[in-house]
Recover the amino acids of this structure.
């Protein structure tokens, strides 16, 4: 052993070896319960097909549904009144929607007419004010009067 490394194990020192534990033993899972034969053996039925094959099997009783309690009869008058009421409500709703649509369409057309009038009026105003000051450089209105002859309240030009 070297004096420089006093803590270093040598080959003569015993070494503990750790081994992992094996898997635990499997747990026995109980088997599903065995099917029990019915107390009475059902009757076996055999059917011979037209081609000669024989099919054998147990006859199964058809399931019978529980009896349904009879419903009370509804008179035709009550049914007709209910359907008529539902139809009347549908017609009223449709008419309400129709009148709402007509009112909205009328408002839209009115607004479009007003918009066209504003645009057309603006174009006219721009033309009037643009040409007003360009006549003869005066900025006013020039009126030319021709010589006219009035005889006996008739105008002769």
């Amino acid at each position: 052993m070297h004096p420089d490394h006093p803590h270093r194990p040598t080959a003569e020192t015993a070494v503990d070896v750790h081994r992992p534990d094996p898997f635990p033993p499997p747990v026995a899972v109980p088997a599903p319960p065995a099917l029990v034969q019915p107390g009475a053996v059902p009757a076996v039925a055999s059917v011979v097909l037209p081609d000669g094959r024989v099919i054998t099997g147990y006859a199964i009783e058809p399931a019978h549904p529980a009896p349904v309690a009879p419903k009370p009869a509804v008179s035709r008058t009550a049914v007709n009144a209910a359907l008529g009421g539902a139809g009347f409500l549908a017609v009223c709703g449709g008419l309400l929607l129709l009148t709402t649509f007509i009112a909205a369409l009328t408002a839209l057309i009115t607004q479009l007419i007003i918009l066209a009038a504003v645009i057309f009026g603006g174009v006219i105003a721009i033309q009037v004010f643009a040409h007003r000051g360009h006549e003869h450089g005066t900025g006013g209105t020039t009126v030319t009067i021709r010589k006219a002859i009035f005889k006996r309240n008739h105008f002769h030009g």
In short: The chain is about 35% helix and 10% strand. Residues 76-132 form the longest helix (57 residues).
